[in-house]
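PRiA4b ORF-3-like protein
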Amino acid sequence: MELDSAKGARQHGGMTDQIVRIRITLADTDPPIWRRVEMPVDASLKMLHDVIQGAMGWLDYHLWEFEAEDRRYGVLDPDWNDDRLLAAKNAKLRTLLDRGVRQLLYTYDMGDNWEHLIAIEEVETGQRGAQYPRYVDGERRAPPEDCGGTPGFEKFLDAIANPRHPEHKDACEWHHGCYGKAFDPDVIDERDAKLRIGAIAKRRAAGKASQAKKSP
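Tokens:
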């Protein structure tokens, strides 16, 4: 798994993206809740955050940050000086790869504390003509927002699975009221994930096209 920035990714006379295949696993879930995505190596950690949100089905309501090599990356707050927090929008995957980073920790919602294990599985040449980032696959639906972290999620699953559970009706009505549908822990909303991540890929492609037009 070597990254050769000088080599680029030339195929059949055209340029394609050099990409990283990433597995996202929600910590402390059994069976594991996970997603696999492909990201361009020039993507920032801010873009990776957006992709994780889309892949997992999170709604981006809460604070978040990455950790790698004892460094933290997130969104800087001008009203709160944190010298230990670096801007995620300025941190590129390529830079982390060049430093030998292959694993990161991503935490979403500091209250519920959803920790995601980010593993870089492969660095390779992308498919000619494909737009990145893109969703690949995964298993099991992620928890609903604001359900109380892992303990709350486990209680929620127990409640919706058992019609005789004293909180069954409330749990089902709460989720349906928030999301407009019943919660099935075994089914991923892959259409939503692909649409959300596809929108990011389209914006990136449009940005690259605009820059190319400006180049002499």
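The chain has one domain: 10-140+188-214.
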